[in-house]
Amino acid sequence: MRFRTKAAVLGALSAAVAFVMLIVVGSRVAEQSDRKLKEAHLEFVLARVNDAVQANLSLDLPLGELQDLIQLFERTITEEADIEAVEVFTADGVSAFGTDRGAEGERVPGAWLAALRNNHGHRFWRVLDRDDLVLGTAVETDFGTVAGYTVIVVKANVVDETANVVVPAISQSVLPLIFVVIVGGIGGFYAADFHQRRTRRIARRLLDDELQPQPGDEPLVVVTANAAGSIRHARGVIAGINRDLQAIDAEI
Questions:
Q1: How do residues 134-192 score in pLDDT, each as one tens digit?
Q2: Which of 61, 81, 110, 162 lies at a C-alpha separation of 20 to 30 Å from 27?
Q3: Do 72 and 46 share a domain, yes or no?
Q4: What is the tens place of the pLDDT at every residue in 186-227?
Q5: What pLDDT is attached to residue 165?
Q6: Where exactly are the transmembrane stretches of this chain (predicted)?
Q7: Where are the alpha helices (DSSP H) in the chain?
Q8: Is 17 in contact with 175 (CB distance < 8 Å)?
Q9: How far apart are CA 72 and CA 129, in angstroms?
Q10: 179 in the same domain as 140
Q11: Are residues 83 and 199 in the same domain?
């Protein structure tokens, strides 16, 4: 195969692979953007609920007496299908009130408290607790002290649901496409190379002045060789007749 043809085939193959990889990278970027948007929305909902808790706390009501906010919590769960529970617990880790009435007065899971200790001053903290993602923030008094924490509980796969859809979709559609492009490109490369070598071989045979059919010859070569042989034979016959005529003329 000529250099230019090889370069063209390889260039087209490289461009196809690059295009497919661009689709993969674009899908991953879109996935990350969707996840961040969902996380930002959950933080916004948590901040809104926590503002209501702090507003009531500023009325000099103890944290444990803000149970009227449960209606707000339940309305939040109704409006936000991804949220399973809303809870407020004290600074020492005891559930004060929330949508899970059975948890009131109980110690919150140790994973929540560990996440608090590792928060390092961020406004929001999060932790995976079994199959749940817990997102929390501090309830502060007017004096800036921490009275407790507000948390919302969502299924962990809610934030990752984009990945659960996009990545398998890429695996089922784009990756097979990559395979097809690569195999097709390699196959086309060798097919074109085989075709050009075959064409050159036929051309060399056809340019042979003494072309004779040989085993394994292409049909075109066989037909041409037979035709050339017939022409040579006819020329020989004509040459013989001419010689005979010249001999007769000489005798006369």
A1: 999 999 988 888 889 999 999 877 666 444 444 555 555 556 666 666 666 666 666 66
A2: 81
A3: yes
A4: 666 666 666 667 667 666 655 555 656 666 666 666 666 666
A5: 46
A6: 174-192
A7: 3-57, 70-79, 110-117, 156-159, 161-206, 219-251
A8: no
A9: 24
A10: no
A11: no
